[in-house]
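Quick illustration, no need to memorize.
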Amino acid sequence: MDIQIQPIVSEKATKVTEKLGQYTFRVSPDANKYQIKDLVEKIYGVKVESVNTMVVRRNNKSRWTKSGLLRGKTSEWKKAYVTLAEGQSIDFYSNI
């Protein structure tokens, strides 16, 4: 199984990182907490204490166009909050 993980860099995610020391990632919907923990430790070289996950539900979207009202849905995805050990940190901007 191929698990994909990408960091979420937003104002809310940055505030959570500063306040609680948790980093936010968008992960594959079929990934479990143990796989996420192993992947983060392998990629970033840090010690992970805990992983909390949540499924972000799909939203209904609609917009008006020349041809009328178009309706659709966004896809579901999984978000993971990763808490690191004391004194550890991840720098997302180091490889830019």
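The helical segments are 11-20, 33-44.
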